[in-house]
Specification:
This protein is mainly alpha-helical and 286 residues long. The N and C termini lie far apart (71 Å). The chain has 2 domains: 1-131, no CATH class; 135-286, no CATH class. The protein has 9 helices and 8 strands. Helix 8 packs antiparallel against helix 9 (248-271). It is globular and about 60 Å long. The chain binds zinc ion. Zinc ion (ZN) is lined by residues 37, 39, 42, 44, 93-94, 96-97.
């Protein structure tokens, strides 16, 4: 009985102490990122027309970077109440991403969330600048950008020749980010090319094919992670390091999947009338 009362008391106080954003701050957070989720791997639109009424549906959340109350995710007691509910401490996210960032605070750190916010604001400006162009030529520009993103050693060398699996994994991760956001980053986080993500393509057939490419890229990363944990390969050689896969089928899967990715991308580009692909066109393998 006593315990029960204590819990009620604690929750009651917690509610009072929350440093909530004002409506004006929430609106500012949403507007500065064009009402899109700030997670660069999501970018979901968070506002749309409701079906029946003249209403607007909002699935966005003004999330706290450091928690609104003591004991919450990433809570920072050095902040004043005013700072805690200020624009600087907020980030606009879709509902599922707002739950995601609170479920794993070691992964979704203050620094990471601030970087997301910064990227998202930059992308909102890029989105605005692009809106004047016509659909087809804009699609071609995006595809040209993707061609550049895939023109890298991670898509050229057979897996046993990959100098460093960690770099390979990073290259795939950066390619996924580029595909989703139109931003290609160097390893230190510097932005080197800017375009739009695949969701900006106006041709739905191409968009679907690029979604397939995105799924295949994610599969590459997942299987690489499993292979590493399971000790499915080992290194040999000095200087020019090679990898030996104990499972030949797995090795072949890494090579054939990347070939398939390039093939799908080549097909889309051919369909768009883009010539001069610089990567070797899908042979058997390499
Ligand atoms: Zn999201």
């Amino acid at each position: 009985m006593v315990e029960y009362k204590l819990i009620i008391y604690y929750r009651g106080t917690g509610d009072i102490m929350r440093d909530e954003f004002t409506q004006a701050t929430k609106d500012l957070l949403a507007n500065r990122v064009g009402w899109k989720c700030s997670n660069p791997n999501c970018r979901k639109g968070t506002r749309g027309a409701a079906i029946e009424k003249e209403d607007i549906i909002n699935i966005g959340v003004a999330a706290h970077i450091t928690a609104a109350s003591k004991g919450g995710p990433r809570y920072d007691e050095s902040l004043t109440s005013h700072e805690r509910k200020s624009y600087d401490n907020g980030i606009w996210l879709c509902q599922s991403c707002s739950k995601l960032i609170d479920s794993d605070v070691d992964r979704y750190t203050v620094d990471k969330l601030k970087k997301w916010k910064e990227l998202s604001e930059e992308m909102a400006i890029l989105d605005m600048e692009e809106s004047g162009e016509s659909g087809n030529s804009k699609d071609r520009d995006i595809l040209m950008f993707f061609l550049q993103c895939f023109d890298r050693p991670a898509f050229r060398d057979p897996i046993y020749q990959e100098g460093c699996m960690e770099d390979f994994d990073e290259a795939i991760a950066d390619t996924i980010l580029a595909l989703n956001t139109g931003i290609l980053r160097t390893r230190d986080g510097h932005i080197i090319k800017e375009s739009s993500g695949k969701s900006a393509l106006s041709n739905n057939k191409w968009k679907e094919k690029l979604d397939v490419i995105g799924d295949m890229l994610s599969a590459l990363r997942k299987r690489l992670k499993i292979a590493k944990t399971a000790g499915a390969y080992s290194m040999y050689g000095k200087g020019n390091v090679m990898y030996y896969f104990y499972d030949r089928e797995l090795e072949e899967w890494f090579d054939s999947t990347r070939c398939e990715i390039l093939k799908v991308l080549s097909d889309v580009c051919e369909d768009a009338g883009l010539e001069g692909l610089r990567f070797p066109k899908h042979k058997e393998y390499w």
